[in-house]
Amino acid sequence: MCTGGLHHISMAKVDIDEHTDLAIEYGVSAVPTVIAMRGGDVIDQFVGIKDEDQLDSFVQKLIG
């Protein structure tokens, strides 16, 4: 996924059962939910399972 380039992406997994405050703050009502943030601001998100091509497209859009 996303080979090449000089981009840096960090990912974190959050257990929404243990961190309900974050689930409420970011409107997470289903899993999996992926939220892309830059500088503390939500810039994009999706809910549901994606295949590798869809994930690659999502990341490419973010770093584009």
Automatic annotation (TrEMBL):
<dbReference type="InterPro" id="IPR013766">
    <property type="entry name" value="Thioredoxin_domain"/>
</dbReference>
<feature type="domain" description="Thioredoxin">
    <location>
        <begin position="8"/>
        <end position="61"/>
    </location>
</feature>
<dbReference type="InterPro" id="IPR036249">
    <property type="entry name" value="Thioredoxin-like_sf"/>
</dbReference>
<comment type="similarity">
    <text>Belongs to the thioredoxin family.</text>
</comment>
<dbReference type="Pfam" id="PF00085">
    <property type="entry name" value="Thioredoxin"/>
</dbReference>
<protein>
    <submittedName>
        <fullName>Thioredoxin 2</fullName>
    </submittedName>
</protein>
<dbReference type="GO" id="GO:0005739">
    <property type="term" value="C:mitochondrion"/>
</dbReference>
<dbReference type="GO" id="GO:0045454">
    <property type="term" value="P:cell redox homeostasis"/>
</dbReference>
